[in-house]
Amino acid sequence: MEIDVNEMRKIDAEMHGLPLCDDVMTFYYDETGNCGKLILTDDGVNDETALECDFILGGVAFDGEQCPADTGQLLQDLKLQSSIKELKFRHMTRGGKSFLEFMGNSRVTTYMEWLHNSGLYIHYATVNSLYYGLVDLVDSIWEYRPEFAFNFEWVQYLKSELYNFCIEYLDEVLPLLYKYQFPNISREDKRAFCLEFCDFIQSYNDDTTEAGFGMEVLRQMLKDVGRHGDISLLYDNDSNILVSEYYAFYLSRCYTYKNAKHYFDFEKVIKAKMDETELMNNSVPFKNYEFVESKEIELIQISDVFVGVLSRVFRYLDNITVDDIEEIDRVKHAQAIENLQKLHELIIRADRKHPMLIQNANDMRLTQMRMVKLELLIGGTV
């Protein structure tokens, strides 16, 4: 399969309303939360942790080709045992069982201080696997009725409402999807699926609320599609596989940052998929990435720690309330809060460099609340 990098990066930039980034940079990556495939089963899904934790592809980057950071100093300061030949996230989890105890421990503190002062940018793409698997339903409606996809924010709003509705009634929605082998709806079952999903929405939805309004809009459009239209994106796919792979996120980093060099931690399945794809630049074969062994590249190891820390932070933020934050002992957990402050500053710095350094294939509301809660945690205003 051939992909025109210039065409793809232009489409992405226009969709998100962002400028192209032509900077020469160097990126290093690792990943966490890769469940392989997220599959519907007769009693739910094959991997429930994939419903709780994002897939994250991320790491560190810098301008140009010369790294400004002293990676050897970090490894020395972490005081790892001599038997440890490769830095991993698991080496950060010393002492304390709670998140805040973890976030304030000496190794995480050493790591965050070094990263904050290193001159490196952080970058990441997060993927909520359930959200990613569901939203083709909304996109199929726009395929049939593009005149109602008023703007990017409207589409994201409806996707968010669909995701949150399905999360609330997950025990009912998963069997419904499984019944019709979603996302591989047969053309003969298209009408039955759409109308049964409409009935499901109507049974639980309160359309007098803001969220309920969004779901009622979706219900009416889905009813129209079921009776008169098509759900083209939900045909001819693998039955019951909500997420078949994550390699598209590797690929998108390569064409978004076309003038950069990308070093990915070696992943056999991902590499095989990437090898099947030929990037083209003005009709000329183009390759700006390489898969490398993490044990040989310290910046990949540092990326492993970063995505591990980020995953723990996001999972914590997703499961606490504003009231919980107000109850935190800020004296006891002062070091953890300081380290979270450094993470927040790194995120802001990356976003100012270029917004696509921080990418979320995720529920808009969930993503926004993560930043709200993080800013409350560090004592900022929201």
UniProtKB/TrEMBL annotation:
It comes from the Bacteria. It comes from Candidatus Fimimorpha faecalis. InterPro entries: DUF3800. The lineage of its organism: Bacteria, Bacillati, Bacillota, Clostridia, Eubacteriales. This is DUF3800 domain-containing protein. It holds the Pfam family DUF3800.
